[in-house]
Amino acid sequence: METSTTLCQYCAAIPFEKLANGRHVDTTRFSLGAPSRVEKSAEECTFCRLVMDFALSGLRYTHRLSWKSRPEVVLFWRTDRVHHPGGCAGFQLISSFDKFLTFISTPGKLPEHSFHHAHAVSGQVDIPRISKWIKSCNDNHKECRPPLSSTAAFQDIFPGLEVLRLIDVEENCLVERQAHVAYLALSYVWGSVANFRLTRINRSELMRPGTVAKFWNRFPYSIRDAIDLTRKLGVRYLWVDSICLIQNDSDDLKRGVNVMDQIYENAWLTVIAAHGHDANAGLPGLQPGTRQTKPSPQSEVRPGITLGQISSSSYLLEQTIYQTRAWTFQEHTLSRRVLYFFPDQVIFTCCENECREICNDDTRDQWASGRPMRSPLLASTLASWHTPARFYSRILTQYTAKSLTNSGDILWAFEGIMRRFSQMMGYRMMQGVPIGSLDFFIVFFGFGNRIRRPGFPSYSWAGWLGTKAIAYRDETKLNIWLIDRTWIIWYQRGPDGAVSPVWDPAANPLFLIDDPKFEGYRERCPFTSPIAGIDTSRTRPSAAVPAMRPVPSYPLLQFWTFVVFLKIEEVDVFYADGILVGKDGVHYGPVHLDGFEETTLFDSKSPLEFLVLSEADTDLDSLRRFAPVIGRPDIWNYYNVMLIEWNQGIAERRGMGQMLKEGVHQSFEPGPVWKEIILG
Questions:
Q1: Each residue's pLDDT tens digit, 545-581
Q2: 494-498-499-504 Cα dihedral, nearest 10 degrees
Q3: Reported pTM
Q4: Is 543 exposed, middle or buried (0-12, 13-18, 19+ CB in 10 A)?
Q5: In the chain, where are the structural domains located?
Q6: How many helices (H) and strands (E) does the chain have?
Q7: CA-CA distance, 215 to 219, in Å (whole number)?
C-alpha cells in the first residue's frame, strides 16, 4: 500500500475528511485537470497515482488513447447505494461506470456508508459467512425465494418436464423427483475438457447410492467443487446440466432446455464458476490453495484515510470467458440469486442486495426504491415492465455478442428467455422474432462484418453470425410507431407451401386492451405512394410463386411493399458499410452491409434492390459519421430500407440502411415499384 500522503494542488482541494465521514460538501464534481497533467503529477501525488491506475487498469489500447484525448479528468462523488458495488459511496470516473474509488475502513473507524475492504480475503472461502448472506436473503427478501410450496404442482413449475434429475449429495447418486425441492444449480463453461455426461446407458448405474464417489475422478473440478459446496451449505441437491440431462437423448435434452429458465429461476441458489476457460477451472477458494489473493492498489491520501478500487460484479464478469458464452447467458440472467466465484473473491447477489468477501457485511435492503432487479425476467416483475419489446431488443443486443461452439444452437440456448418474453408480450415468436412487432425486430443493424448462419432466415437476428452485437432503434412509443409508420401486411409461407397471416388480431384478445405493456399491432395504415400512378393497394399474397429449390425448413415471409433501386458508394471494407446514392448522384443515407465477404453482390457497380420497410425519424447514433453527408434529419424524414439479393426465387437480406424519403424519386430502373417479396 502507498503510504506517502503528498498531494498536488488539485487533489489537496478535495475534502477527503468530510467525504469519509459522510458530511455535506459544496460540490461533488472534482476536476484533476488534463490527463497529461495527471500523468505528470502521478510521479509525486499519491491520489493522482491512484487515479491513473484506476482509470487505465484493464483498458484496451484504443481506450488508453481515448484517455489521452479527453479535455480533463473528472471524478464524481456518488452516495446513491443503487449504483455502487456493495452499495456504498465512492468516486466515479465519468468513463468507468463499473469501477469506483472508495474509502477503505476498519470496523468502527469510519461511518457505515464507507465499509469497503474491511475484510482481507483469505486463501479459502468462509462458508459460514456465505450461509449468513443467503439466510439473510431468504429471511427478508420474498422475491428472491423460489416457490417451494408443497401445494404447487410439479408441472406448473416445470411444464413439460417428466422428472427433475438432481445429484443427491447425501446419497451420492442421481435421483429423479416430481416435486420441487431446494437445490443448487451450477453454471459454468464446458470448454474443451472431457466432461462426464449422463447417457441412456449409465443412467441406471448413476442412480445407485454411492456412485458419485465411484465416478468422482471422472468429474471435472468445477462439478466436484459444486458438489462439495452443496454439502457445506447444508443443501441436499445439486443440478448440473451434463449430469441431469441425458446427453444422447434428443427428447430429454429438448424437454430440459425448454424449461431451462424455470430450472435456474427456481434454484435455491445458482453457483457461477466465473473463472477459467473450461469445466476444470473449479471454484477458486473452495479447496485450500486454489486461489491467490492480491489486494487492489490503494493509497493513504491523508493520515488515517485510505482509498482503494472496487469493481462491480458486471465489470468483473466482462473480464471472463464465462461472460462470452451464449449458453451461460440465460443461466446468469434468469437466476434469482447468484454466488459468483471469481479468481480472487466471492460475490453474492440477489434481487435486493450484494455481499462481498472484501467488504463488511451490510445485509440491509440496498435498493429499497428504484432497485435494479438482479434478474429482470422474474415472474413477479413481468407486470411492471411496460416496454417488454424494447427490453427484449436490449437483451438481444447482449446475447448476440456471445459465442457458441455449435452455431446451430443460437435459438436453443435462448429458448427460456424467448418463452418468457413471449408470455410477457402476449404473442408467439417466429425464429426468435416477436411476431406482434415484426416491423420493429426486422430492422436490426449488424455492425462489422457478419456472415449467414446456415439453417436460419436472413430476416431474423438468428440468421447472422458476427463478432459484434446487433443494435435496434429505440422507439419510445412502439405501438404508435407500428400503427402510424408501418404498413406491410406480413404472411408466412411454410415448407409445405401453406400461407397464413403472421399476425391475426382476432387471435390475440390481449391487444384489445389499451395497455402499453402489450406492444404490438392494433391496426395498420396503408402505404401511400409518394409517386403518382403507382398502385399500392394489393397486400394479399399470390397463390402461385416461382419455383424454390431447395425449400428452406424455416417459414418464409411473403408480402408486398415499395421497392427502389440505388447504388452504394464509399464502401468501407473494414466496417462493412457505405452510402446510398440515387441516379442524381446525391447521397441519401447510410447502409450497413451483411455477408460482405461471402457474396459478389457488392462488387457490382450496378443499382441494387432495396425494400422500403417502414418510416424512421433519425439515423442511429452509431451512424453519425454520415451526418455531414446527409444533413440534419427531420422527424420521420427517413425510410428503413433492406438491401436484398435474390437466390433461386427467394430474397435474402444483404444489408440494412436508412434512406431520406426524397430518394424514392431518384431510384434507378426498374423502380420504384410496388412488388411482392418472398423473404427467407
A1: 777 778 899 999 999 999 999 999 998 888 888 999 9
A2: -90
A3: 0.84
A4: exposed
A5: 9-121+297-311, 144-295+315-381, 389-512, 556-679
A6: 20, 29
A7: 7
